[in-house]
């Protein structure tokens, strides 16, 4: 069986994420929303937990009506026109969703779900940063954790993963980064900021903890790697390549 809840949350309110998906919609959904809406939903979670938001479907007036998603004060996206299955994660333990409509032309609006972010996911990199953290960051992570994040590139695009540094138990808790079957690094103990770029169209991040001693863990961001960027050399080899390698590069690259 199952247990789930669904509400039309009116024009904005405070919501609390749980392990089960919950839902909210624009006013009157799936009928057209009213003109002159200005709604704000704040979605929180417990201490050390992060929120995962999915905009399941969205249809608004293309020019002027929109949904904007904030992680703290940082705007993650502004969606308008048509969109579906857009996923956003907090780094601050809270997301805010703002819906605005002007004084003319309305559409069906949006339907969204939210829950506490699980330990690991499969997600496609975009030009906007997305985030991963160890469970309960910046508080200490639990014992006996095994998490896996698969960060995917689309159409041969590379993925750039950037750690802001981190701390794990030196002997036994670690973060492994894979580019396909090639292990790029194992991070453990106290490590500083470092970045990795895929050659295979994706990266895999594995986090393991044993049965004793915990630390604060890590946070990191990932984006679709562009054609040209600033790189920082470390003692460990890092790799970059032409767009789409080993497939053919595009025309008109610069």
TrEMBL record:
Biological classification of the source: Eukaryota, Metazoa, Chordata, Tunicata, Ascidiacea
Keyword Transport: no
Gene3D superfamilies, per the entry: Spermadhesin, CUB domain (2.60.120.290)
Boundaries of every CUB domain copy: 11-117, 119-225
InterPro entries listed in its UniProt record: CUB_dom, Sperma_CUB_dom_sf
Annotated protein name in UniProt: CUB domain-containing protein
UniProt KW keywords: Disulfide bond, Repeat
Origin: domain of life: Eukaryota
């Amino acid at each position: 069986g199952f247990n789930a809840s669904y509400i039309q949350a009116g024009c904005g309110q405070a919501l609390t994420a749980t392990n089960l998906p919950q839902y909210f919609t624009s006013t009157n959904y799936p009928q057209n929303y009213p003109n002159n809406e200005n709604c704000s939903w704040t979605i929180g979670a417990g201490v050390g937990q992060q929120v995962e938001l999915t905009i399941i479907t969205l249809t608004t007036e293309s020019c002027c009506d929109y949904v904007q998603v904030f992680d703290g004060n940082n705007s993650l996206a502004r969606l308008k026109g048509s969109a579906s299955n857009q996923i956003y994660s907090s780094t601050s333990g809270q997301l805010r969703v703002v819906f605005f409509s002007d004084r003319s032309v309305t559409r069906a609006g949006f339907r969204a779900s939210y829950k506490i972010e699980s330990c690991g996911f499969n997600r496609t990199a975009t030009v906007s940063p997305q985030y991963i953290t160890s469970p309960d960051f910046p508080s200490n992570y639990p014992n006996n954790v095994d998490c896996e994040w698969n960060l995917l590139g689309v159409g041969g695009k590379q993925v750039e993963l950037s750690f802001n540094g981190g701390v794990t138990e030196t002997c036994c808790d670690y973060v492994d980064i894979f580019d396909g079957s090639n292990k790029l690094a194992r991070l453990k103990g106290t490590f500083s900021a470092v970045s990795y770029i895929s050659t295979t169209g994706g990266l895999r991040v594995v986090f393991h903890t044993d049965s004793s001693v915990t630390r604060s863990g890590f946070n990191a961001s990932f984006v679709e790697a562009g054609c040209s960027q600033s790189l920082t050399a470390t003692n460990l080899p890092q790799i970059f390549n032409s767009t789409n390698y080993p497939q053919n590069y595009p025309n008109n690259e610069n």
